[in-house]
Amino acid sequence: LGPVGLLAALYFGSELIVPQIYASILQGLRSSIGLSNEEAKFLILHIDMDQDHAMALREIIIANCRTKADRLMLVKCTSMILDGRVAFYDSLIKYSSQLETNNFTYNDQTTKKWSRSKPNYMNDFMEQPNVVKMCKEHVKGSIILDVGCGEGYVARKLVSMGATKIVGVDISKDRINVASTHLEKKDFEYYVEGDVTNLKETLLRTTNRTNLMPGAQFDVGLFDLSVAVFLFNDLTITDMDKTFRDIFSLLKPGGYFIFCVPHPFISSYDCESFGFSKNKSSNYFSLRDKLVEGHASTISGERLKVSMFCKTFEDYTQAARKFGFDIIEIEEGRVNPNNLNENPDLFDSVNGVPLHLVMKLRKPECPVKNSANVASTNTLNMLPKKLTWSTAARRHPRNAFLVQIPNEVQQELYKASFEWYDRGISVDDLDLVGDFPSSSFNSLKSFAVSIRNSVLHETGLVLIKGLNLDMFGVGESEKMVACSKIAYY
Judging by beta carbons within 10 Å of its beta carbon (0-12, 13-18, 19+), is residue 405 exposed, middle or buried? Predict the structure, then answer.
């Protein structure tokens, strides 16, 4: 199409519109993964440079399109290149829509169908009870990470068994909303939206919503137990490895990881209540890491679409060993007599079929470092390198950086300081956990969380003021000094 066609492609099809496209992508990245200006500096530079290129090309186009024929050719070529871009983006939208349809975990409509407070699906009667049973001896008093938590069905089971804290992560915003607003939700249940293949970064980015503290604990281990119920069937082998790596890093030494997946055999099985009919002619190994579609029925007879990335038995055991786990127990899920007696219509067609696989893994007390998990050795390096102060913060620093201790926090500190002093406990003898119940500091804990979040995600520093030491006595009296030290501690 000649020089005019090339100019149309460069100007109207690229330099003129790309800054607007990239600006939208940049905004999406900031909203979805918290991308900082430092991390996005090359994209920002690209946008600025393309704007300069567009200004320069505009003058070249004016100089080279002086005739009507040239201008008509410019319009024609511009129309062609823009039609090509539209077709490309339409294909992307179509592809992403297919992914959402295929993968029931991310779909708003299916979120409502899969949300429940009592058993309704085959998994609820069989595999989830098996997971809960395998977790039983490890739950009471534990801090638990539920990876791919969905709407919180399994998490609530673990809470009822005595977990002291549970953090759930799922990529579906709708499912997280269901979990977070459930009527039975406890104060120590936390649910956040995020990509489980970047699990550690997700938890670092959401510490203000999970009450987790960034730092050494992220590297030594935060959780006593982690569970993943029907998660890895939604991930490719590469993404599964990323999740394994982060779970291993986030577990305390001696912590357990218990997960369940569809049995590798099931990808070529099909029946009325459950199966993958399109793959009956495929063999076990040829389906490896491929996405296949199927169906699953409820006790009411409703038929739901399901999908999974097929894996072999060896894929799971190799991933466990590669990242340093000890394999403690493996169980193949099947129909039991109670299932048949209670719901024969649902279970009769799968009786005798290996339906699910449950594995219990353990992080050794002294983990051996290997090349597979070196990438997650220092969590502090994953925190933002720079915080950008807002214009309002720079203009009004007292409002942004100066924080007054709330009255209710002061009262908790005064009360605790006086009581410890009256009991003859000095700051050198103080055992915060043993000497006072944590409920005595509810306001202080909330205040501390807000301060930590401000330091980590907003300002990087604060000046805390407002504790009136005169409440402890006059001048430099022994009581005033002792109580002040306790309050400061």
Answer: middle
Furthest C-alpha separation in the chain = 97
| Phi–psi pair at 359, nearest 5 degrees | -130, 135
Alpha helices in 307-396 (DSSP H): 313-322, 337-342, 344-347, 391-395
Query: Could you read off the pLDDT of 230-280 as tens digits, one per residue?
Result: 999 989 998 999 999 999 999 999 999 999 998 888 777 766 666 676 655
Question: What is the value of pTM for the model shown?
Answer: 0.58
**Residue type at position 183:** L
CA angle 430, 432, 433 (to 5 degrees): 130
User: For residues 24 and 22, what is the distance between their CA atoms, to the nearest angstrom?
Assistant: 5
SS3 305: strand
pLDDT digits (tens, 9 = 90+) for 393-439: 788 888 888 999 999 999 999 998 898 888 888 888 876 555 566 66
CA dihedral angle for residue 271, residue 274, residue 276, residue 277, rounded to 10 degrees: 30
